[in-house]
Amino acid sequence: MRNAVAAEWVKLRSIRSTWLCLAGGVLVSVLGAITLGGAAAMEQPPVQATEPAVSVMLFSQYASITLAVLAVTTEYASGTIRPTLQAVPVRGRMLAAKSIVVAPVLFATGVLTGAVAALCTYLVLLAPVFPAPPFLAPAEAAADLLRLGVFHALIGVLAVGVSTALRGSAGALAVLFMVTLGLPLLLVMTGGAVAMEVALRLPTFAGMAFLESTDNLTGGLLPYPPGEGLAWLAVWTALALAAGHAVLRRRDA
Question: Is there a contact between 167 and 252 (Cβ–Cβ < 8 Å)?
Fold first, then answer.
């Protein structure tokens, strides 16, 4: 397993798309957090600087998703999946190695990007144009950033499972977009009680509950505790990995 993980790490950091996705994630997080923070500071000051950085996960998650998808599908597109599977013939071990590499990278990225976004938001909101200066509660900020890292790690591993099952970048990204944003929005728009309950348990809303984000379509905290949100997110991640493993075992490269 150690050799498989080392090989996956070399491949991940050697792909140009990895660095482009990381840079895109930082850009989206910083600009999005400043925008959300500025709006919140005008309406309900003062603002805890990490709150906008957490809320922008609705958009920044797609940088993590794209990174994880390309970590898998690039090998299928280039044909390098064949020597990978020859070197690691146990399919589950290869999938586990990819997940083990992607998860800590995205965890660290989520924490550091969130910290940069929060700091930039804090500095911008100090401008005299805003009615009240922002604040940073150290304990709350640390908890927000750690949870943000966990969310990005799990959503990335979920994307690894889906892309392993589908093997193509376009198909995997389309399915992940629908599962994380398209389908939840459609269900919320129906206005039905059952549809709303289903939408609130899908990955993005589960992540919002885990992060205790109030900047969501419900207009407040989601109606279940952060621990349940984490549990739902973990369940979806496990199901995606199981689907990827099942397809990987049945189909050759």
Answer: no
